[in-house]
From TrEMBL:
<feature type="domain" description="G">
    <location>
        <begin position="41"/>
        <end position="156"/>
    </location>
</feature>
<dbReference type="GO" id="GO:0002098">
    <property type="term" value="P:tRNA wobble uridine modification"/>
</dbReference>
<dbReference type="InterPro" id="IPR006073">
    <property type="entry name" value="GTP-bd"/>
</dbReference>
<dbReference type="GO" id="GO:0030488">
    <property type="term" value="P:tRNA methylation"/>
</dbReference>
<dbReference type="Pfam" id="PF01926">
    <property type="entry name" value="MMR_HSR1"/>
</dbReference>
<dbReference type="InterPro" id="IPR027417">
    <property type="entry name" value="P-loop_NTPase"/>
</dbReference>
<dbReference type="GO" id="GO:0005525">
    <property type="term" value="F:GTP binding"/>
</dbReference>
<protein>
    <submittedName>
        <fullName>NgrB family protein</fullName>
    </submittedName>
</protein>
<dbReference type="GO" id="GO:0005829">
    <property type="term" value="C:cytosol"/>
</dbReference>
């Protein structure tokens, strides 16, 4: 096979060749929808929590503002991060506890936004000690609306946690004393909010500390159909083997469900058995092409 033929090959099309011709087009369209899916992440936090620096530390694409966002107040900003053909939408959600009157307004905003979001990054300043409003919103607004499974708490700017003068600038990491205080803060936040779905992740975005660990936690917390879209947009230094393997498995599981749906609803019973026997090879072929598709 010459270089032109190799370059023009389409692994997705190749993987579907073993399926009956009459269902290939519908399956190819559904798989294209999966590949093209644009994940939506809400970034919530008070002013000064370092949301912008966190996004810049995580993602490699250009950030562009998106106007005319439906169901959003003027305090909510939507951005699109794009690198290559794929993109991720970020919705900057105002934090609570800064204005009592606005907090009442935000309750409905959060309820309206939550169904649109694949993940919520709730960013808390490392030295913040006022959690009453946050706790109220989490327990009385987000959690009852199904937000517990899709909310990941990020303790940012941990380089400011006491004793902040002991921060190891050369190696960009906390001192042993700081680390103990960080662990205590993580435990305190977990206890106050009472969540168990995902651990609190401590980072210092501007210092590059622990951002890779956060990215890995993000991919694990995302619904399977959104994992690859996010993994394709993170900075290369954060695209670890854990990230790519988690996203690849999520992609494979999503494709598997699509194949089952189409096979069960379009093929006669005798043919279903035969095609489902070939399904494993199709999913395996597409998973092997993950880097070609999303890399």
């Amino acid at each position: 096979m010459n270089n032109t033929e190799t370059k023009n090959r389409n692994p997705v099309k190749d993987a579907l060749e073993i399926l009956p011709e009459n269902i290939r087009d519908s399956i190819a369209q559904r798989i294209n929808d999966i590949i093209s899916y644009e994940p939506v992440i809400g970034i919530m936090g008070k002013t000064g929590a370092g949301k912008s620096s966190l996004c810049n530390a995580i993602f490699k694409g250009d950030i562009c503002a998106v106007s005319d966002v439906a169901a959003c107040t003027r305090e909510t900003q939507e951005m699109r991060i794009q690198f290559g053909k794929r993109s991720v939408r970020l919705i900057d959600i105002p934090g609570v506890g800064e204005n009592a009157e606005r907090d009442v307004e935000y309750e409905q905003l959060y309820r309206d936004l939550l169904p649109q979001l694949d993940l919520v990054l709730w960013v808390i300043k490392g030295d913040d000690r006022a959690f009453s409003a946050d706790e109220h919103f989490y327990k009385n607004v987000l959690a009852p609306a199904g937000g517990e499974a899709k909310t990941l708490f990020v303790l940012n700017q941990v380089d400011k946690i006491e004793p902040f003068r002991e921060w190891d600038v050369v190696n960009a990491r906390p001192s042993p004393s700081q680390m103990q205080n960080i662990l205590d803060k993580e435990a305190y936040i977990t206890q106050r909010f009472g969540f168990t779905d995902h651990p609190v992740i401590a980072v210092a975005a501007s210092e590059g500390y622990n951002v890779t660990h956060l990215v890995e936690a993000m991919v694990r917390a995302l619904p399977k159909h959104a994992q690859s879209g996010v993994a394709s947009q993170v900075r290369d230094e954060h695209k670890t083997r854990t990230v790519t393997e988690e996203a690849t498995e999520g992609f494979g599981d999503t494709v598997d469900r699509v194949l089952d749906d189409i096979i069960d609803n379009t093929l006669p019973a005798p043919l279903r058995v035969v095609v489902k026997a070939a399904k494993k090879a199709v999913v395996s072929g597409l998973k092997k092409a993950w880097n070609w598709i999303f890399g």
